[in-house]
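Subject: complex prediction, re-run

Hi both,

The earlier run crashed halfway through, so I resubmitted it with identical inputs.
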Amino acid sequence: DAGITQSPRHKVTETGTPVTLRCHQTENHRYMYWYRQDPGHGLRLIHYSYGVKDTDKGEVSDGYSVSRSKTEDFLLTLESATSSQTSVYFCAISESLAGVHEQFFGPGTRLTVL
Amino acid sequence: KNQVEQSPQSLIILEGKNCTLQCNYTVSPFSNLRWYKQDTGRGPVSLTIMTFSENTKSNGRYTATLDADTKQSSLHITASQLSDSASYICVVSLSGGYQKVTFGIGTKLQVIP
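This time it finished cleanly. Structure:
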């Protein structure tokens, strides 16, 4: 998985509780991303980062926040989890090679919100 | 609206046979197209990446083609193996933004003995 780890790998939580997912990379890539994958949908971008402390929203960012205090770590926080946030979450990293970004994905975190 | 559509949604083939998966896209302006393999319970793994000027790219038994004029791509798998059972995802990137990426839903391939 290209030097990318995600923790936890599985989590079950209750509606209204805060949840933080962690992505850690050893590749020193500048760009990091959080996606969610749901049945019937392609992966959808939640938030992304283009450097330490530099982040921006993706297409499905409502209810999520992120932080990146170090190059290697990108955290995704659900401030108050809802059942609609039950999903599989993937972290990805990329670096520009001749202007082309090839993304490498982590193993995923399966989150269930009851 | 930028879209990536894949067909078929699912496919069952016998071990040793060949198969071709299709990807049509309406993404514009186009930067590159990638094919990923996703095993159950794992993250997607890159198979090929093609820019506008490339029309064929191979990775072992996987060969991807790209027709930028018709906005179509295909992934051909030769001499399939049981380990090819997975979802195959077509991904198209827009130019002008590394984060502007559209994912297809994927084709679920099952290779049976």
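Chain B has a mean pLDDT of 94.

- K.
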